[in-house]
Amino acid sequence: MMANSLLDDLKALGFGTDQPINGADVVDVINKHWATLSSPLKPQDIADLVTTCFEGGSSYWIDTFNMTPDLRAGVRAALGKDFTNSYCHGWLYEQPGWKIHITIDEEDDNAFDLNADAVLKGTQLLQEKYPKVWAEIISEDYDAGDADLWLQLCILGEVVYG
Question: Phi/psi of residue 100, each to 5°?
Answer without folding.
Answer: -120, 125
